[in-house]
Amino acid sequence: MVTVETTEDLKKYPEADLVVNYITNRKKQGLYSLILIAGLPGTGKTSECCRLGEKTSIKLTGENNFTSACIGDNFLHFLKFVKQAKPEEVNIYVMEEISVLFPSRRAMSGDNVDLAKVLDTCRKKQVIIFANAPIWTQIDSHMRSMANVYIQTIRVYKKAGIVYSKFYRLQTDPRTGKTYTKNFHRNNRDVNRMYTLMPNLEMWNEYESMKDTFLDLIYSKAEARAFDRNAKEEKLINKMKPNDINSFTAQEMFVHNEVTLKGRSQSEVAKDLDVTQGRVSQLITKINKKKEISNVEN
Hints:
The protein is an alpha/beta fold. 52% of the residues lie in helices and 18% in strands.
């Protein structure tokens, strides 16, 4: 493989041709494709997803039919897209932040289990999915094992207007469940570096506008949750008698406020106090006993 020294060296080769050709060949064989893209914030994950969507659309249809409507960051939007997809057409979808939607730590949660069923439908409908996350291992393990290509964005060259990345084919051993990376080849030589240009500016601006709308929605939800939480805390505090509060030690008061009133887990509070979770459990028992005594006395 030729070592890339400048962006001009990189541009001597066709833009993401091996990945796009691989996806289009799979589509022509009646197969779906799942491309996972990982990379640290600011390395061009979303830009690369969108540009690959455009290139794939052009390769398969002769024109760019990829729009901002094909980008989503929630499961319902993805489900709607898959439901409406037709296998005789070209269906390309970009799924944002899949490590948040389908994290590996919740592999058996409802959404993650549903995802496995939806991916099987994607196979039947030949949907082409570009999904991104900051860290590869944070993605649901079933989704990783079902993927066909792994891309890692390395950096954005803003002046040149390109995203530089490395890429591999994925192959999962059904016996062990392990997923292996394989190099692509050009002229009988290993190739695992590529570049993509910036996506269509109009589409990109629409996407940025969607993100602003989404942020406003998230803020409204967070504000409503904070209001409800404060109201519940105030209601609980008003129910407590002065003797309850006065009899608590500093540690007990902290645990009571964080666990009973705010609903935090015992393990989280234990870390804050630098004690074991068992100690927090003991403090909660003492708090409850003091409340019972206070109720009897009053």
